[in-house]
Amino acid sequence: MQLIRRAEGFTLIEVMMSIAIFAIGILAVAGLHYWTTRNNTTGEVMTQATMLARAQIETLKQQADVAPLATGTVVDPGNPIDANGDPGGIFTRQWTVTDPFGGGYTANLRQVQVTVSWSRVGQNRSVVMTSIVRGRS
Known about the structure:
Order of helices and strands: HEEEE
Helix content: 25-40%
Oligomer: single chain
Number of strands: 4
Shape: rod-shaped
């Protein structure tokens, strides 16, 4: 008696379905990679802007007497600036000095609000940081 062997393997439909499922998985991973990279870049730029705002507030805090600071808005003369505060970047920085307490006992106190703005991928963004400064006296 002779055994009859059946030819076994995958049909064309099974192979095509496997390729389709694999392709969907690869596309999902590629999309995840794209969004992760984009969010990391956005976070890095946001951190740079925050550090620029903080650096300006620290510069104003280092003054011995903040009472003579003119109240109003000052635009950074180096605009646009880069992440180090040097001219030629994507950031614009300005700060507003106010006397929120009206002098008197608090004559050496000023409120400083620093705004760092930038535009990326067609979106305008900004970081605003506010602090009360009194100088080093």
